[in-house]
Amino acid sequence: MIETETLTDLDASMELDTIETESSCLTAEVNAAQAGQRLDRFLSEALPDVSRTRIQSLIREGHVRITDDPSSGGTIEDVKYRVKPGECFEVTVPPATDPELKPQDIPLNVIYEDDDLIVIDKPAGLVVHPGAGQPDGTLVNALLAHCGTSLSGIGGVARPGIVHRLDKDTSGLMVVAKNDQTHRALAEQFADHGRTGEMRRGYLALVWGAPSLPHGRIEAPIGRHPASRTKMAVVPKDKGRFAATQWRLVESYGGKGKDAVASLIECRLETGRTHQVRVHMAHYGHPLVGDPLYGLGFKSKLKTIPESLAGAISSLDRQALHAAHLAFVHPASGTLLEFNSELPDDLTEIVRQFNQL
């Protein structure tokens, strides 16, 4: 559930993930706003560390049950089952049969590569590294197949080469280190967030409504949501960490200012907090289109737009967020490298339809 987060040497030693060797049990309860969702979608939103593909497999294999339904043990094996308010689901994640990471032939969109690092354009839905409930099928497995053993070991067994992360449902640019020296140098740049150097990260976000100003800056501390373990929130200073996001209005759709239905926003991060763009834009009154955690209050907007557009947004199955720009100084050559990534097809189609309003 991490949008973009720098992994320093200290982070790696303190947060080292290892693949589960014992079964784990996860629970999720349906609230009124989630009623009617497909079971696989509900669970993937409620348990953001487990990919939707993995959730679907667990359902079909009989590892999901309704805890208060005694019939047949309450097991649900239909991924399309529509959840009801008050239902509580228990997901049993079986242990991995082999704790060793294995290379997997998963396609990678490689933007740049040399002996020290590789830049990839990650698709939405791809988890960055293995963890509880996601032992394989991750970006790390793909990198092991592509790079072999030439990945930095600072990130630990489950995170070779991983300097920073993107949420599984956020698409876009990532850089991965192939050796420890490069890893340390890149981690320092990401930790600095461009305050004293040339490192930059830029996102494109489709949001509901449009800001009244052409650009601005959101400075608001972010911490764990007081009532939901899966969410972050803007909280008092003593309960969160400093967070700042610069934003710029790129274009609006269906009107201007308060009359706009939606808009495309460019965001630049000054910090790297969990769900930062999503939390800050929702706090500002413009949550991301399709955001299952922070945009549910705008679900009624779907009734005010053309059916085809509403259908495209409903089938998006992710927040409309793309890591579109990445710039950093190459640790070995000292050259500034800059990369840009166009919006992927799913978001491009929604923009096309918004432009027709």
Summed up, what is this model?
This protein is α+β, with helices and mostly antiparallel strands. Helix content is 20%, strand content 25%. The protein has 8 helices and 16 strands.
SSE layout and pairing:
Elements: E1 5-6, H1 9-15, E2 24-29, H2 39-46, H3 52-60, E3 64-66, E4 88-93, E5 110-113, E6 117-122, H4 139-147, E7 164-165, E8 171-177, H5 180-192, E9 200-208, E10 215-219, E11 222-224, E12 232-234, E13 244-253, E14 262-269, H6 276-283, H7 307-314, E15 321-329, E16 336-340, H8 345-355
Overall pLDDT confidence: 86
Distance between the termini: 32 Å
* Total of domains: 3
Percent of residues in beta strands? 15-25%
- Note poorly predicted spans: 1-22
Q: Give the second-level CATH assignment, the architecture of the largest domain.
A: 2-Layer Sandwich
Structure class: alpha+beta
How many β-strands, per DSSP?
A: 16
What is the CATH C-level name of the largest domain?
Alpha Beta
Looking at CATH, the homologous superfamily of the largest domain is Pseudouridine synthase
- Taken in chain order, the helices and strands follow as EHEHHEEEEHEEHEEEEEEHHEEH
CATH fold type of the largest domain: Pseudouridine synthase
How many strands, what sense, and barrel or not for the largest sheet? Answer: 9 strands, mixed
**What is the C-alpha radius of gyration, as a whole number of Å?**
20 Å
* Number of helical regions: 8
Percent helix, as a range, is 10-25%
Q: Looking at the structure, what is the overall shape?
A: globular
